[in-house]
C-alpha cells in the first residue's frame, strides 16, 4: 500500500493543455530508507517489488497513457527518438513527436530538462548532469526539433543548487574551454574548487542556441531533503523522474 499521497511538481510554463509534464518528489511511495519512499529507479539496490509498486502508483496517479520509456542513463550525449525506444536502451535524452509516448528522465542532483515547442507537437526530456551539459547534450537534443529555437520552451527541474554543487578544476575547465562566458556560473572557493550553478550553465547553452523561453531552475535537491533525493547528500538513495508526453485527449 502507498503510505502517503504522491506529490508532483508541474512546470510553471504556459503550454497547450495536451502537453503533460511532471516531476515526482520522494514522497508517497513504499520504499524503506534510504530509498524512502517514492523511489522509481531499479538500479539503486531497492527491491524490484518496491520499484514496480511505486511505478504502478505513478502510472495510476497521473493516469499515464502508457508506461514511461525508461532509459539506461550513462551521462552520455546520446539522444533517441521515442519511436526507436526499446527496453534497456542507453541514452540520456529522448525526443518525441508522437502522442502518448511518455518520455522519462531519472535524476537525484543532475538537471532534468523538459522541452516542448510552442504548439505542443514536439517534446524532449534530457538528463543534464555536468558531463552531459559540457559535452553537448542540450545541443544534440535541440537538433532533433523541426521547430525554430525561438519557439521552443524549456523547463529546468529540481537539481543541486548553486550553493551546494562543489566541483573541481576539471569541471570548470570543461565549460570554460567551450565558452569563456561560462565563468559567470562558477564561484571559486579555493585554488582547485568551485561552486557551480548547473541551472546557469544550462541557461547559457540554451540561450546560445536561440532558446529564450526558460522556466524553473529554483530548486536545490541537496538542501530540500524532505522533497528530493540527492546522491551527493546521501550516496545510497532513490531517484525522482521527470515526465513529459503529448496527450491525444
Short précis:
The chain is α+β, with helices and mostly antiparallel strands and 249 residues long.
Can you characterise this structure?
- The protein is of the alpha+beta class.
- The chain has one domain: CNF1/YfiH-like putative cysteine hydrolases (4-Layer Sandwich), CATH 3.60.140.
- The chain is 20% helix and 24% strand.
- A six-stranded mixed beta sheet has the order 3-4-7-6-8-12.
- Strand 6 and strand 7 form a beta hairpin.
- The longest helix is centred in the first third of the chain and has 14 residues.
- The protein starts with 7 loop residues before the first strand and ends with a strand.
- Belongs to the purine nucleoside phosphorylase YfiH/LACC1 family.
- One of its GO terms (molecular function) is copper ion binding.
- Keywords: Hydrolase, Metal-binding, Transferase, Zinc.
Keywords:
249 residues, alpha+beta, six-stranded mixed beta sheet, four-stranded antiparallel beta sheet
SS element count, helices: 6
Examine the secondary-structure arrangement and name the CATH architecture: 4-Layer Sandwich
Q: How many separate domains make up the residues?
A: 1
Task: Sum up the overall morphology in one term.
Answer: globular
SSE pattern: EEHEEEEEHHEEHEEHEHE
Low-confidence stretches: none
> What is the name of the CATH superfamily?
CNF1/YfiH-like putative cysteine hydrolases
| End-to-end gap | 30 Å
CATH class: Alpha Beta
Round the Cα radius of gyration to an integer and report it: 17 Å
Task: Tell me the total number of β-strands.
Answer: 13
Kindly state the percentage of residues in helix.
10-25%
CATH topology: CNF1/YfiH-like putative cysteine hydrolases
Structural class: alpha+beta
The largest sheet has its strands arranged as: 3-4-7-6-8-12
Family: Belongs to the purine nucleoside phosphorylase YfiH/LACC1 family.
Protein name: Purine nucleoside phosphorylase
GO molecular function: copper ion binding; hydrolase activity; S-methyl-5-thioadenosine phosphorylase activity
Organism: Methylophaga aminisulfidivorans MP
Amino acid at each position: 500500500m502507498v503510505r502517503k499521497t504522491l506529490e508532483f511538481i508541474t512546470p510553471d510554463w504556459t503550454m497547450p493543455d495536451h502537453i503533460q509534464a511532471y516531476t515526482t518528489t520522494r514522497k508517497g511511495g513504499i520504499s524503506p530508507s534510504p530509498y524512502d519512499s517514492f523511489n522509481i529507479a531499479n538500479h539503486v539496490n531497492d527491491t524490484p517489488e518496491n520499484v514496480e509498486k511505486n511505478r504502478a502508483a505513478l502510472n495510476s496517479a497521473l493516469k499515464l497513457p502508457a508506461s514511461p520509456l525508461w532509459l539506461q542513463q550513462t551521462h552520455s550525449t546520446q539522444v533517441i527518438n521515442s519511436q526507436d525506444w526499446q527496453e534497456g536502451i542507453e541514452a540520456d535524452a529522448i525526443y518525441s513527436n508522437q502522442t502518448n509516448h511518455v518520455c522519462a528522465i531519472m535524476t537525484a542532483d543532475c538537471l532534468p530538462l523538459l522541452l516542448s515547442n510552442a504548439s505542443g507537437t514536439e517534446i524532449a526530456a534530457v538528463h543534464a548532469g555536468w558531463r552531459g551539459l559540457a559535452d553537448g547534450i542540450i545541443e544534440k537534443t535541440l537538433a532533433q526539433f523541426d521547430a525554430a529555437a525561438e519557439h521552443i520552451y524549456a523547463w529546468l527541474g529540481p537539481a543541486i543548487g548553486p550553493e551546494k554543487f562543489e566541483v573541481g578544476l576539471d569541471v570548470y575547465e570543461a565549460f570554460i574551454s567551450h565558452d569563456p562566458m561560462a565563468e559567470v556560473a562558477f564561484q571559486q572557493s579555493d585554488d582547485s574548487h568551485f561552486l557551480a550553478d548547473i541551472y546557469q550553465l544550462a541557461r547559457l547553452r540554451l540561450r546560445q542556441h536561440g532558446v529564450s523561453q526558460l522556466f524553473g531552475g529554483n530548486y536545490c535537491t541537496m538542501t530540500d531533503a524532505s522533497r528530493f533525493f540527492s546522491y551527493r547528500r546521501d550516496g545510497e538513495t532513490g531517484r525522482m523522474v521527470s515526465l513529459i508526453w503529448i496527450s491525444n485527449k
